[in-house]
Each structure stands twice: as structure tokens, then as C-alpha cells.
Amino acid sequence: MRPILLQGHERSLTQIKFNKEGDLLFSCSKDHVINVWFAHNGERLGTYEGHNGAVWTVDIDSQSRFMVTGSADNTLRLWSVQTGKCLYWWEFPTAVKRVAWSEDDQQVVCITEQRMGHSSAVRIFNIDREGDGTNQSKEPGSMFNPIGSKATLCSFAHVPNLILMGHESGKVALFDAKTGDEVLNNERAHMDVVTDLQLSPDRSYFITSSKDKTARLHETKTLTVLKTYTTETPLNSAAIAPGKPYVLLGGGQDAMSVTTTSARQGKFETRFWHKVFEEEVGRVKGHFGPVNTWILTAVFNSIAISPKGDSYASGGEDGFVRVHHFDESYFRAKPYGDLEIEE
Amino acid sequence: EDAAEESNISAELIAHRKRLVDEWNAWRKRVKAEVAEERKLLGEKVEPEAEKEAEEKEEIE
User: Fold this and answer.
1) Where are the alpha helices (DSSP H) in A153-312?
2) Contact B39 A159 (CB under 8 A)
3) A221: helix, coil or strand?
């Protein structure tokens, strides 16, 4: 499974996302731009320019028509996927750390950073999909300030008007989108910063990764922890594989600590874990080139799996996106026999 | 003896995994049904409102 290396960013990747069909891959970076690539061959289809700061987050609607992005320039932007034009933007007092579309493409949720006397805020915008998309309302449909520890991750939960959040303290929580009330929380979902949160296709469960070196699977409705995957490095990202009972975990030490540890200790891999058995089933090394030359090592900041389940991608601290197409052995492999596992 | 022990362990492990899969599948079935039901209820709540709005709009026009 040799990866395709996508070269087009000058700085560290922050988030990568496939569209619903899995034919396009979107990547955003500290270099202020968002790129879109053909997933099958890694060819760059286009670049979205306009942000004046690191782009922290990206999400694409289910029709691949509109894209939203959030940036350190304190703006949330709405783009036309096809033309590359920025259709509308909203400005806030602090950086936008995470954006996500609702399941019906009618709403966008975003979270802004807590900084310099500004508390973190969650805003939900109703997106006008009529016409060319430039006619948006400036004011959010609703807004609230999540209580307690700094919130950094947000998504729509399994039912409308419920927002799922991840916090720096390790907490995960559900908030009512309209009232801003915390409906339910798990204060000790993780022991350290929650770094990623990705939902299953029907949103009934989700995976989180954390600096506490674990990833966990949770039931959305109750926030019950279903499974725990314990590794030996801080994790930056985790994803649920469609069609196979696996979860993918990515991470590694940051560049600072790499210089003080040996290459052997610096583990830069995507790990495949069995979703149900909580056992590691495989690893993909985070380097590119001949096997015996360690050309690049990268901390993986973001992992995404194609909704088709035929490939996955990782976005690295080194500015490269790697797309891995699963080979036949991946689909054939049944490491634990013929047990049928429900999606 | 070793072989016997090994096959014992593997039989235990297989049984353990089978149990985990059964638990998972039972949970998936329950949750899928719950989510479908919740969405149906929400849909019923949302639709009459949407229809009402549409009617009002027509009157204005």
C-alpha cells in the first residue's frame, strides 16, 4: 500500500476531509489556503484563496456544492466548491477552530477560540441555499458560550439541534443548540486534550482521539464510552472505517520532542485497530520513499477515510497529504475469522 | 500438553471474541432502531410547522 504524496501546501496541515462521494479530498493548512484533490490520483483540482491566516478547519456539504472553512484570521467563510469563489464571510473577535455541516446541509456550526477576554462561542448559522449562495444572514440563528473547560471541537449530533463538543480538559458534552444548555457531559471522557472527534455515518456513535494516548468510541445519545484504544503516543486524529470493523488512529510526537528522542522511539504511523476487540491489527509507517531511507517523518494532524472505504488520507505536520488506496489484501483480510459485525 | 493448553487459550479467545461481537451487534440493532424512531418523531413534529409556513406564504402572495 504505497501512498500517493500530495504536494501543494507550504506549511503544516490542520484538517483533511473527503466529500460524500469520496472522489474529492479537501485539505487546509497553516499556509492560509485550502486545496482540493482528486482522491484517485492525487492531482490537484484547485486552490481556495482568501484567508489571511492559518486555516484550522474545513467541511463540505453532502452535495459537494458548498464548503465552509474557519481560520486564525477570525473569519468563517462559505465557498463554492466548483468555482472556488468565496461566497460569504463572517467575522468574529477570535479564531475559528472548528466548523461542521448539519446532516441536512441547512446549518453550519462553528466554534471560536477563547482568548484575550473573549470566551469561546458556538454559533449556528442557517445557510441560505437558494440562488448562488451569496445571500447569507450576518447573524447566527443561535449562539451560546459553552461552560467549563475550553471547547475546541464541535459537530451536529445524531438529532437536529443537539451539538456535540470536545474540550481541552478531556470532556465531551452535548449542548442544546437553541438554549445553549449543557444537556449531558462526560467530564472524564479523556484525561487530556481531546484532539479530534469524528462521527459514524448515522451519527449514533463517534470516535475521539486525545493527547492522553487513547482513542475512544462513545454512544452519541448517552455519551457512554463503548471502547478504548490505548496506544503509546499522543493522538491527533481518529477515524471510523466504513465497511470494515476498524478504526484508524494517527499521531506522533511533536517536532520539538522528536529531536530529543531517537527515531526508533518516534513512532509516526497510522494504526489500524479492531473497533470491537480493541486490538491493534496493523500499522502504516508515516514515511515516503524507499523502505530503507527515512526521508520524511511526519506527525499526522488529521486522518480521513473515504466514505467509500477504499482509501484513507493523512495530513502531516510536514505539509504533505498522503493518500493510501487499500489493496486487495485489505479487503480480503479477515484477521478474526468469519464473525459478522454490524456497521 | 502445550498444544492442548494453546488450543484451550484459543478456544477461550474465540469465545471471548464471539461474545464481544454478539454484544456489539445487539447494541447496534438497538441503537439503530432508537435513532430511526427519534428521527421519525422529530420529522412528525417538524412537518406540520413547515406545511403551515408554506400555507401562510401562499396567502401573502
Assistant:
1) 255-258
2) yes
3) coil
Q: A184-204 pLDDT, tens per residue?
A: 999 999 999 999 999 999 999
**A53: exposed, middle or buried (C-beta count within 10 Å: 0-12, 13-18, 19+)?**
middle
By Cβ distance, the residue of B21, B34, B35 closest to A276 is B21
Per-residue confidence (pLDDT) for residue A2, from 0 to 100: 72
User: What span, in angstroms and rounded, lies between the C-alpha atoms of A38 and A186?
Assistant: 39
Burial of A242 (0-12, 13-18, 19+ CB in 10 A): middle
Q: Which residues of A touch B22 (CB under 8 A)?
A: none
Distances (CA, A) of A311 to A4, A62, A299, A321, A335: 11, 19, 19, 13, 19
**Would the pLDDT of A98 be above 90?**
yes
Are residues A252 and A300 in contact, defined by beta-carbon separation less than 8 angstroms?
A: yes
Q: Do A159 and B24 touch (CB under 8 A)?
A: no
Provide the pLDDT confidence category of residue B4 given band limits of 50, 70 and 90: low
Interchain proximity B31–A339, CB inside 8 Å: no
Please say if the pLDDT value at position A285 is more than 80: no
> In this structure, what C-alpha cell is assigned to residue A229?
484504544
CB contact under 8 A, B24 and A276: yes
Compare A338 and A244 and report the one with higher pLDDT: A244
Sheet of strand A13-18, all strands in order from the earlier edge strand to the far edge: A13-18, A24-29, A34-38, A44-48
Q: Which of B20, B29, B35 sits opposite A277 (nearest CB)?
A: B20
Task: Give Cα A257 distance to the centre of its chain.
Answer: 24
Size of interface A-B (CB pairs under 8 A): 41
How close are the terminal C-alpha atoms of chain B, in Å? 88
Residue A133 · residue A78 · CB < 8 Å: yes
pLDDT at B1: 59
Mutate to test the interface with A, among B12, B16, B31 (most CBs of A within 10 A): B31
pLDDT of residue A260: 43
pTM for the model stands at 0.88
User: What phi, psi does B46 have (nearest 5°)?
Assistant: -75, -40
